[in-house]
Amino acid sequence: MNEKTNQSSISDLNKEKHSTSGTAILKANDLSLEDFVEEQLKQWNDAQQRFNELQQVETKDVEVGSLHMKVQYNPARMVSTGAKIDKKALAARPCFLCEKNRPAVQMKQVIDDKFELLINPFPILPQHFTIPLRQHQPQQIRKNYTEQHRLLSIFPDLMFFYNGPKCGASAPDHMHFQGGSANVLPLMLNWEMLAQSLKPLTVLNTEESLSFISGYPCPAFVIQSRSEAADEKLFLQLYNALPLHDDDTEPMLNIVSWRREDNFISVIFPRKKHRPACYFAQGDQQMLISPGALDMSGLLITPRLQDFEKISGQQIEEVLREMTLSQDEIKQVIAKLTSTTNPKNSTLKCIVNQREPKVSVGIVGAETILFSLNQNFLAKGEVVNGEQEVQLVDGAIKWKDNYYRELTFVPQSHEGTFSLNDVTIGVNFHWERKETQTFYGTLRLVMEGGKIFAINDISVERYLESVISSEMKATSSLELLKAHAVISRSWLLAQIEKRQHLEEATTGFFSFIKKEDEVIRWYDREDHTLFDVCADDHCQRYQGITTVPNQYVSEAIKQTKGQVLMYENEICDARFSKCCGGISEEYPYCWENISKPYLRAVRDMPNKVQAQLDILPDLTNEENAEKWIRTTPEAFCHTSDQKVLAQVLNDYDQETTDFYRWKVTYSQAKLKSLIEEKTKKTFGDILDLIALERGKSGRISRLKIVGSLLTFTIGKELEIRRTLSDSHLYSSAFVVDKKDVINGIPQQFVLTGAGWGHGVGLCQIGAAVMGEEGYTYDEILAHYYRDAMLQKLYE
User: Fold this and answer.
1) How much of the chain is helix, strand and coil, in % rounded to 5?
2) Coil/strand/helix, residue 480
């Protein structure tokens, strides 16, 4: 049924005109909603005066976190803000929503057999309506939630909201909704940005889901639906998961709903308090704020001038958080929701409605950041472009002589770009350098740990174009590029999934084991709390459009769009490194002690040759490992073909000439200096380096350092590589020769090693050779990720 037909059918219910007592009934079939408002205000002088006064009320913009919120000074709302809603007060006054108690001049428009629409005589919005139940029943949402969906079907250009009986409703004894002008609330105005922070909890289909909004100043959930049945189903799931406080008839909540074309959006704020502490404070500490749905959505109403003038963004955020459930309470709600949903849906939290997700990438952190907006961007309500500078001053981000906690620059076109100066690439590697880099997408600036961090929010597929071009030459074979697109996408989505699970977990994540004589530490993306991944080799090398992708990279992304590796209904954490050294490593030897069957040791050579060799050599055995590392067994990655290497590696990667086998020589003084500087411990003379534990590729995961004053054990592989080099040792698969021993003290140490990087998953050089030899991308993936399956997650 189209909108016009809907409105006509409602209008046909209103045929009479009544003016002797109670409410006047409008002949709505003769008038549009606009005409209804005009006719009502023409007849009701008091209401007309308040709507006129609303146009003159003072408002101010306030920064709350990353959002632009509004405060409205509205003295007429003292009636609602100061309303007493205890049982005694409600019993002592007639219900002003019951028809018999309304002003005779107040008109109504019948919506259906249950609800009718009235002008709200104490407006906050340019258009403001009250939609009461036609019978006197208490405010309760469970049986009436779908009415908001129906209202949006009838009035798609309005928004509607619900205040729970202890959450801003001034008539908790009479069920009602309110509605009014859309695109006035900061919640709605910032929805495009907020929608990027959704964490899906229940997904019914490609268009309908229940999610948590992680980017709002206080906890909030969102239901996105098209059908009334799906809307109700998702709401009841959330309703049943919310806590019910003593003596309450329903969970405390506020709801704001609106439409975007055929999509129905409802944001639910889970509450725990009716009014904040400042409402009951004395003297200068008092602020008469009684938050309802509009306040929770970023439009704060203050009926007193002194409160309007003094309230700050920090105070607003504190009030919103005070009103809503705590972080631990939200975790309990989410746990209830995810425990009852389909395992497939609850596992893939990063995929919303089978649509391409976005990723937040940490680019650079500094006290001062210089950048250029190359096209028009929107920031703090104004369009800006050109050269910009931000500085960390007195614990805030200073920009254009104003101070902020967070800044967001949103491009006004899909092709909008920004450039960041002095971005460091190859952090702590031998090719480390600074350069200016250019990026698509949104730029966010946030503070943490005495620095401003520049974060790029961008779609996954655009991110991948940069990663593939940055990780290897765009002239690589198409099959290699396609394989790399799949694993880069898989790894990225797996990290986003992992971050979301960690945020919801009740226990912390630990990336080290510390004893008196030993530290075992591993490094992963859990180090990042402000963003999903960083832009450097610590995660995946991402340089925006500084390295321009050619048609082969774009084609590889296009042909594999949405494809990931899956293992037992989970996205594979598809790791990769430059050169495995002949055998790939297994996950637990480099990171936490968790088995990932698809990341097991693989001989890097054709399967038919592997079958002839029968089994892998046991490189956890020291004698076998030494023999393996000191020789050069055949492998895909055992190549010196410059044509292949030039296709795979960027120029600064080619500065490393030895991939498969290498040697490093240290003097006693140099090795002692490195170890003591990196560990912050005093060893004296270094007497020996002893491998206590090796992985399946021969990489050392626990290394005992024997000194004349201290013996200490370190691990895992990256900690070992960082300790034994100014930047990073090529790998931890090495054996040690002690030279020129004087009085038991070696004067020289020679490390003979195999491979480059951690060696887990795909070997980039080996995969490049496979691509040149005619292997297809799925064959390359099947070689390195055993038992993993290709699956398309989004279009």
Assistant:
1) 30, 30, 40
2) helix
Tokens of 105: 């001049």
CATH 3.30.428.70 fits 60-83+96-338, yes or no: yes
Q: What is the pLDDT of residues 284-325, one digit of tens each?
A: 889 988 899 999 999 998 989 999 999 998 999 999 999 999
Measure the N-to-C terminal CA separation of the chain; round to a whole number of Å. Answer: 30
Per-residue model confidence as pLDDT tens digits over 84-139: 656 677 677 889 899 999 999 999 988 888 899 999 999 999 999 999 999 999 99
Residue type, 638: H
What average pLDDT is seen over the chain? 85
Residues 6+ apart with CB under 8 A from 359: 457, 458, 459, 460, 463, 492, 496, 532, 533
- Among residues 88, 256, 227, the alpha carbon closest in space to that of 167 is found at 256
- Give me 711's structure tokens: 């013996």
358 bridge partner residues? 459
Distance between CA 301 and CA 292 in Å, rounded? Answer: 9
Question: Residue 684: which region, alpha, beta or left (left: phi > 0; alpha: psi -120 to 50)?
Answer: left
Q: Contact, 763 vs 487, CB < 8 A?
A: no
Neighbour count for residue 385 (Cβ, 10 Å) = 15
| Phi and psi at residue 247, to the nearest 5° | 70, 5
Give the DSSP letter of residue 195.
G
Question: Which helix H or strand E contains 792, and what residues bound it?
Answer: strand 789-792
**Going by C-beta distance under 8 Å and a sequence separation of 6 or more, which residues neighbour residue 444?**
66, 360, 406, 407, 408, 409, 454, 455, 456, 457
Count of other CB atoms within 10 angstroms of residue 544: 27
**Is the dihedral angle over the CA atoms 496, 502, 508, 512 positive or is it negative?**
negative
- Across the range 403-421, mean pLDDT stands at 90
Q: Give the DSSP letter of residue 284.
A: G
Cβ neighbours of 341 (radius 10 Å):
18
Residues carrying CATH 3.30.428.70, the chain: 60-83+96-338
The side-by-side arrangement of strands in the sheet containing 299-302 is 58-64, 67-73, 299-302
Which among 412, 520, 770, 473 has a CA at the least distance from the CA of 645?
A: 473
Q: Which of 379, 42, 353, 354 is nearest to 190 (CA)?
A: 379
Helix (H) or strand (E) holding 7: helix 3-11
